[in-house]
Amino acid sequence: MDAHVWMGSLEVKTEKYSQRLSPYDGRIASRASICNASDAQQALVIAQNAAKIAKKIPLHQRCAWLLDVASKLKVQREEFAKVLCDEVGKPLTYARIEVDRCIETITLSAETMRTMHGETINTDAMPSGRKALSFWRREPCGVVVAITPFNFPLNLVAHKLAPALVAGNAVVLKPTPEAPLCAYKLAKLFIESPYAITDALSVVYGDAEVGSALVSSDIPRVISFTGSVPVGAIITKSAGIKKVSLELGGNAATYIDTSADLEYAAQRCAIGAFANSGQVCISLQRIYVNAEIYNEFAAKMAGETAKLIVGSPYDEATFLGPLIDDDAVSRAMNWVQSAIDEGARALTPPRSEGRLFYPCVMADVTESMKIVCEEVFAPIVSLVKVDTLDEAIEKMNNSPYGLQFSIFTNNLTHANQAIEELDAGGIVINDMPTLRFDIQPYGGVKLSGVGREGPRFAIEEMTEIKSIVIL
């Protein structure tokens, strides 16, 4: 199926298309319109005009719009899951989970917006003030540019579209080139809904040229981007005076305390490290283990990893499907081999078949190795021996990233210390740092980004506060 451009409510079929090949078997998964800077500018102008209308649409209609999309997505669950398998090689079981989460994200956005409100202000609270009717309220920013990645190409689109649209904005979406059809089909549900706001959503495709035109334009008020740190840095420099929300890289870590349930910890760490083939910003990459239990935990971790099924994303039993492209496989294998050359041990044998990269547990890893100090974005996890929680916290914080960390412990004092001292946007106690509930605030510190997602928090990012005084 072709992913056409959406210029507002008008579906545009272009002369030239690019092909997206399945990362699993190389079949043509979809075709997407080839866009340029002119297309991006046209979409922005349409959004600019639509934003003037969108802000006046009653909230009940905007909420009905989102709930209608969520209802139809539920009916088309299998169809969307199949597209995720085709375009990014996501195992079918987990593709269905992503569709379900997308439905929840859209629904939560509508429900959250119903309860968003301002407050009255006591203007006579200080001697310089006086009595007046004063309050503040939230208003839409206007035009939002949303740029999304390949690893969750449905739910992460929903995390931008749903809050932006229900808040009364207009949106121009540039989805990842790896999953154009997924975004097209979701946008189609929004645009063809009987509750849709005319021209409030446009979709264009492309890489740097299109992205640069969207970001550098004076039309959008908000740029919402999920992707790599280098691209995030470019956006920050070229956006100008706008609200910029950046969800960037991570180097998630956990600590295994002597009081932890080691079997449970190993089970959860295997999932956290290898879900979606490690292609997750909060994928568990570093496991700091107390020296007293290091060997026991390492054996359990290797055992849990060996149980994971690698194979066709269309097989219901598959846990790990393919990496996104050949470069990802080469990089992962090179980093593992580099670590081995520097003295690390592979507790599970590093191997690949085509773009299938088997999960790899590394031991005796040092802080200078790439598989520890840089974002891997592949199914590789490293075990590092530490003597104390203090040492673990110091090493976990010694990273340019700060997205999510966790600790496995039954020691309340240690849990509290981790909450206080770990430098990250999210801390999880007794589960993997890869845990994310779509209702929660999500985002990082340092190079992991600026701003927060999650329906309520994204709505705050995509609205302005207007203060009113009546005398």
Describe this entry's structure for a reader.
The chain has 471 residues and is an alpha/beta fold. The protein has 2 domains: 2-248 and 448-470, Aldehyde Dehydrogenase, Chain A, domain 1 (3-Layer(aba) Sandwich); 252-437, Aldehyde Dehydrogenase, Chain A, domain 2. 39% of the residues lie in helices and 22% in strands. Strands 15-18-19-14-13-21-22 form a 7-stranded mixed β-sheet, with helices on both faces. α1 (37-54) packs across α7 (208-216), α3 (77-88) crosses α4 and α4 (92-115) packs parallel to α5. The radius of gyration is 23 Å and the shape is globular.
CATH class of the largest domain: Alpha Beta
Strand percentage, roughly? 15-25%
Query: In order across it, which strands form the biggest sheet?
Result: 15-18-19-14-13-21-22
- Average residue pLDDT: 97
Tell me the Rg in angstroms: 23 Å
Could you say what the CATH architecture of the largest domain is?
3-Layer(aba) Sandwich
Give the helix proportion (percent range): 25-40%
- Give the name of the CATH superfamily of the largest domain: Aldehyde Dehydrogenase, Chain A, domain 1
Report the end-to-end length measured between terminal Cα atoms: 60 Å
Quick tags:
471 residues, alpha/beta, Aldehyde Dehydrogenase, Chain A, domain 1, Aldehyde Dehydrogenase, Chain A, domain 2, globular
Structure, briefly:
By secondary structure, the chain is of the alpha/beta class. The chain has helices at 37-54, 59-75, 77-88, 92-115, 155-166, 180-191, 208-216, 229-238, 262-274, 294-306, 326-341, 370-373, 389-397, 412-421, 455-461, and strands at residues 2-3, 5-7, 10-12, 17-21, 28-33, 119-120, 133-140, 143-147, 170-174, 201-203, 222-226, 243-247, 252-256, 284-290, 345-346, 352-353, 356-357, 360-363, 380-386, 401-402, 404-408, 426-429, 445-446, 449-450, 463-470.
